[in-house]
From TrEMBL:
It comes from the Eukaryota. InterPro entries: Nuo17.8 (IPR034444). This is Uncharacterized protein. It comes from Phialemonium thermophilum.
Amino acid sequence: MSALRQNAAGVIRRCRLTAPTLRNVRTYASEFHGHGHHAPAAPVDEPLGSAVYIAVGAVFASVFVYTVSRPGEDGKPRLLNSLWNRMEAMREQDQERNALRTAVFEQAAHDKHLLYYAPRSDHIELKYPEQFGHGSPFNVPAGHYANIDHVVAHYREKHLKEEERKAKKLAAEKQLS
């Protein structure tokens, strides 16, 4: 116990603050020049601030803009009015262009909606009649393939009608030219 007390006392002794570190000592330069008696400050010549120049410039600028914006002696508009009219015309062109672009984007969105959400047809046209005969030839007992001659005849007739329609259309185009 004695050794523990001695070590603790040594640590406390080392950590104890001394008198100069307990208080903050402040020294000011003004205290040492003349022992508290201050000399009067030198007069400072302060220039006008930038706000005065801005205010005076704003008055002159407003008078200038007013005189430039008035029509001339012959009644013609001056440069400022013609520039303003040009800007108005450009603004109107921009509004028309924006209206057209908006219409285009709305139509594109409408078409996209039609393409994405239109009901799909489950009907699939056959590209060739042999498609019905596709299937595994293995493990099929004899006589178990369906007779699809009537389906082949239907699509052959449909093809012939389509070819006849195309031939009539070509003949009509030749007569016109």
